[in-house]
Amino acid sequence: MAKGIISVSDCLYRDNFFKEIKKREGLFICTIATTKTAEIPGISAAGATPRLRRYTAQADVEYLFYEKTYTIKEIPKNPLGPPSPVIITKACLNLSGIPVFIIDAGCQKKAKVPAIIIRQKGLDCITSGKAFDKAEDLFDISKNLAFEFAKLNRFIILGESVPAGTTTALSLMSYYGISAHNKVSSSIKDNAHSLKSEVVKTAHLNFKKRHKGKSTPFDIVSGIGDSMQIVNGTMALFLADYVPVILAGGSQMLAVVCFMIKLSEYLGKKVRWENISVCTTRWVLEDKTADFRGLSKDVKKDLLVLASDINFSGSKFKGLQMYEEGLVKEGVGAGGIAGAGFIRRYFDQNTLLEEIERLFGKMI
User: Mind listing the pLDDT tens digit for each residue in 193-252?
Assistant: First the structure.
């Protein structure tokens, strides 16, 4: 086992997966989208206010490129102070030299970064029962992108920045019968389970009113999920035929796995699960208001699930120490890209903390 990596699941193909990662260089792909679900008061802390959450994803990826933001004045913050986990991702990119690609899967306002834009409009609130349209188009584009990225023969880290993404994750997983209520994690310290469940209940009710007959995976995810689930799920499904894939995140990436299972059944396509892992942060794994370990087993029993052992308790900055109090936890692929860095030995835990503190010091 690589130092800095926590094995969440007892998976037979773990050692071979690590070997395959060590054979090649990496590539980080971050899929972003904005959804009106994030503007429901109290549902997310990925941005200080509901209005600012419209721009969280854009600011996150601007920071990845420029170490500053253009869409809003500064990188997104939890209302209580700690910075977006993009600071972890940026530190990992700096130390590893891994290149980054941005896929815009539906931001109402476009980020000022080089990006592959595959959807122009933002997403509606899932309570409408129709969060977005043209899901099949997103599938076709994502499938073709997977084939192109696979030609690079690099391992692929698939991250995301979608505020309220744990709510859309809950919505998708619970629709498919997974016992996900009260188990998804959150950027909010005390989570918002009852609010999330009410939103999801309304979403499912309105979706079923719209769809009387049999629904395809595309109908379901575009009705009550988010576009990142289609993009990352499709890319992972086809990339895994050629290269190792790290789904970088917590509850949201478990929803991606859920979508992959349903999509593979719908397409009649075998999934090379031995080339796929989910990797999150220790904070998500240890979140007492959620159950990441149990949820991952419910989604897929023999899935390789990992966590990066990042620790801010010894940091000299209060804003970073607050991660240890259960604020923020994960996002922008932080857990997965840190995990890849530990496996490839691009950096160790101390070096990573030093770089994060350097970036945070410049920020404040």
Answer: 999 999 999 999 999 999 988 899 999 999 999 999 999 999 999 999 999 999 999 999
Q: What domains are there in the chain, each with its CATH number?
A: 5-363 (3.40.50.10210)
Cα angle 281, 11, 284; round to 5: 15
Question: Is the Cβ–Cβ distance between 246 and 334 less than 8 Å?
Answer: no
Tell me the Cα Rg of the chain. Answer: 18
Quickly count: other Cβ atoms within 10 Å of residue 288's Cβ: 8
Instruction: Look at the chain and count its residues.
Output: 364
Whole-angstrom distance, CA of residue 291 vs CA of residue 185: 8
Instruction: Give the global pTM.
Output: 0.97
Nearest to 237 by CA among 184, 273, 202: 273
> And the tokens for 327?
């604020």
Q: Which two tokens stand for residue 304?
A: 């390789």
Task: Single out the residue of 68, 67, 31, 32 nearest to residue 53, CA to CA.
Answer: 32
* Tokens at 339, concatenated: 């995990």
Nearest-angstrom CA–CA distance, 164 and 32: 12
Terminus-to-terminus CA distance in the chain, angstroms? 36
Q: How far apart are CA 169 and CA 153, in angstroms?
A: 30
For residues 158 and 247, the answer to whether their CB atoms sit within 8 Å is: yes
Identify any residues that bridge with 248 across adjacent strands, giving them in sequence order. Answer: 279
Which residue in the block uniquely carries the two structure tokens 């109290």? 42
Place of tokens 């084939």: 147
User: Which of these, 126, 267, 137, lies nearest to 208 by C-alpha position?
Assistant: 126
